[in-house]
Specification:
By secondary structure, the protein is mainly β. It contains no helices and 8 strands. The protein has a two-stranded antiparallel ribbon with strand order 1-5.
Amino acid sequence: MLSQSDLGSASQGYGLIDNTVSQTSGGPMQKLSPYNGAADNVGLLDTTKRTIFDSSSQPVTNGQGVFNLKAKAQTPPGSQ
């Protein structure tokens, strides 16, 4: 999988996409590229530890980040 993929135009694939970030105070919390895409644009999901949210090293109180796992399976020929 590439570092970023558009599942709308790809025949198959999977990845993560940021949904929401919030904090009571501090930060601000931010969604990071390539996970901050829109619609069907997803970021890489593999075994490497990656940062998907950040607060620019600023402390936050009650910080929360929500992400979605999106996948698209290839449609077998003749099944449509």
